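writing this on my phone so excuse typos. first protein, seq and then structure
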Amino acid sequence: MATPEGQAEEKAVKLAAEEINAQGGILGYKVEVVVGDTKLDSNTATSEFRRLATVENADVIIGGFSSGVMTAMMETMAETKTLFLSDASSPAHAQKVEQNYEKYKYWFRVSQNNGSTFALDLADMVKFLRDSGYEVKKVYIIRDEHVWTDPVMAALKPLLEEMGVEIVKDVKIPRGYSEYEQLILEAESLNADLIMPILAISGTGDVLAKQWATLKPNLLLAGHDLAPIDPEFYEKTNGMANYEIFLADGGALVTAPPTEKCREFVEAYKAKYGHYPESHQAYGAYDAVYLYKMVVEMAAKNGEKDPFNPDVLVKYLEKFDASNPVKLTRTIAFYPNHDLMWGDDYVRNWISQWQDGKQYIIYPPSVANGELKLPPWIEK
């Protein structure tokens, strides 16, 4: 809860609960929100999950930002048999559902795609830059020293090799890292065409953007970093985020909402809290509350004896597949392993860029509302 991701989830869930209660609740019951803080620590997280499930008697648990922490919480979820509409991106979570369905079936990924899909998006980013006239032959990677980035790299390396792109260096950094200047200078000395961040846990994307803009190296800053998704990021960097290219995780941007419900949500969020969602986790958390309401009401309508039973609700959530997606703030469907469906017609991490204080989606064309702009100091 000290991170923008956790804060956005809590605010979004409370907003959804407030809206649903104003409409009569769920089957006449008022929705109550109780909060636990993982503190990005596995032991704390499992303890808090158990408290929410057994002491607070939570019917559904929403959230979970860190992949490593998520893995630990899934064990507690299996013990308490609590429906878990989650965040985090490690492919290992969905693999657990595949390998031991009965134990882990209560888990569904709602906020963002499986991390291995980030590799597809990053590869498309490189292709898009090339097609737009910016040649990419060498890439310098800066990534979290964390479990979630390993499958991304495992999938990304062969994709880049296939395109003839060399990874000149792969640097892992810890949470709170701020010495980007030396890395930027090294990337330029190695003739990299772009620095590709793969960051979520570091929490210092603003520092990276500022140092890149200050040094003005002859290379782009283009990759995956959660920080630039924040609508306030431009102001937080004093405008030095200009021209940074990033992935819009979770399939939505305040400036390019993919659905009418998304448009309504971001405005309601701003009206209630005085600012737009500070993290893409807000979309998933908000959708999770409405998803829960939908499946409980579906179960009741179909005459289920206990429409709140998690074993029953799993079956109804599984009905939202490729042939039957549900349109909330994004178009949501699940794979058989309960992973969030990836694709242009579902949830995808859109290739986006900061331009003069505004976020634009620049690829794919089906959702783009802007075009690529190169920094004036780039010589290509």
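second protein below, same order as before
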Amino acid sequence: MGGIQSPFFKDHPHALKKKLFPYGLYILLFIAIFRLYFFPTPTAGGATTTATAAGEHLLKPTSPPPPSKVLVEEDSTSDNVCDYTNGKWVHDNKGPLYNSSACGTIKDGQNCVSHGRPDMGYLYWRWKPNKCHLPRFDPNTFLQLVKDRHLAFVGDSLARNQLESLLCLLATVSVPNLVYTSGEDNKFRKWHFASHNVNVSVYWSPFLVKGFEKSVEVPYNRLHLDSVNDVWAKDLDEIDMVVLSIGHWYLHPAVFYYGDTVLGCHSCNDKNYTQVGFYDVYGMAFNTTLKALVDKKIDVIVTTFSPAHFEGDWDSLDACSKTKPFEENERKLEGMDYEMRRKEMEQVVAAKENAKNSKDFRLEALDVTKIALMRPDGHPGSYMYPNPFANGKRDRVPNDCVHWCLPGPIDTWNEIMLDIMKRWSL
């Protein structure tokens, strides 16, 4: 997901396989690992499981997850904190704070207007929580809150998508200067806002932990769940706040390691490894990452999993052709989207509990999974490339039903993030 390439969307899974983990040796290994290293994980009902139980969860198939209504409401820890997860998208005549032609930091594949997307209705919706008010983004307030600080986005191309949204929002009052760029497709970049002495950077790290991406020679990812990725961890001493955003790369074939030991693999049928699902290793990756950030006392915001909206084949004309949001009860949060969010929320709650006595560490989930699920109209779709129908309709065309148009729904992610930061400053 470094760039929007057709093979990614072609291979994007729509169904998950849950398999048994039959070997007793691995049971003992997982129990030992979790006892020695990992935090206790709260269950959906609020109780805390033991480290052994957390490890054993990897060994057992789980029942299908329930709909989202109970889960999304259960994470509230205070009546004084706004629950943004439940609400609806309402029409808004004001439209976005910026336009695509005025912002120069939008990745080409997400600049839907310049690529000829004919419908503009997707730009005129705002998220309205059921029980509280979400203010419009105020760039001056954001810059003041991060004055003299370094904010880093760490993750995959959804992290970059949110970062570029933030840059466009802030550029309406202060011009960002690109001071560093490196890597294929500019995967590592840093901007400086001289008006407030603010640095904003992005680090490509689609697993958070140490990992090696698949290639032609090795057609599966290799993840080391016991250590964070040094491409971003080496700079932690100069970073004040981190936004984490990953997920979709965990759906691809992968072999999972802990130290030098192979724990199993996901969809790597050509290897003689035990097949495991990726939900629990996904949680382990967040556990390792959050532990490292707690130890460094760096403020953290975890942007939860952002669902894709493929309907049918990745290259069909109707892959993601909707032009308005889902109604409030039209689509339930379930299946893979539910499970990915649940694992993230479990680790956020556990990390906050372990750091509750620390006055120098702040952590919050930017829970956008349900909000994103309700916006099938916000993706580039076939307009990931310029003017895809300039020469007439085609039978097949690549579609991006994962990332978000800029301007677009992902600007709301940053509105919620700003509100979290304002509450931190109280």
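The chain has one domain: 92-424. thats all i got for now
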